[in-house]
Amino acid sequence: MLEDGRAEATCRSRWKRVERTLAEAGRMFPILTTLLRTSVGGTLSVGGYGVRSFVDGAQVDQVERARLILPDGQAVWCSREENSELFRFALAGFGQIGVLERVVLRTVPTRSSGHLARRGPAARSPRGAGAGRGEGR
């Protein structure tokens, strides 16, 4: 973890590992894909969309800085302020201008999980969800 709730991660890491580490610090990444076995670099190379993207944008929108390995082997840090054109084209760029090696990500405090409430006639039935359909007997 870095200051101000930011986290640095290697792009080889899987999101599951990153989330586990963030959770220990009471933080989380705001946008996750439905498959946490994917790599950080893999999803950032294609944009990275999840169920909260309609609210918080894509995963690439949460990246503060990135370390990029260029085709000539040179490693450079880029951000919106530093090497901004590289930064703009590296994220969701399918690896066309280089390989993402490390990133600094914005995180948010861990959210409590929501409660799913069942509504409708089956939810009010004393016999449960299958009541009225010949199930649950």
Automatic annotation (TrEMBL):
Residues 119-128 have a biased composition (Low complexity). Keywords: Oxidoreductase. InterPro entries: FAD-bd_PCMH-like_sf (IPR036318), FAD-bd_PCMH_sub2 (IPR016169), FAD-linked_Oxidoreductases_BP (IPR050432), Oxid_FAD_bind_N (IPR006094). Residues 4-79 form the FAD linked oxidase N-terminal domain. Residues 113-137 are annotated as: Disordered. The keyword Oxidoreductase applies. It comes from the Bacteria. Belongs to the oxygen-dependent FAD-linked oxidoreductase family. This is FAD-binding protein. It comes from Archangium minus. The lineage of its organism: Bacteria, Pseudomonadati, Myxococcota, Myxococcia, Myxococcales.
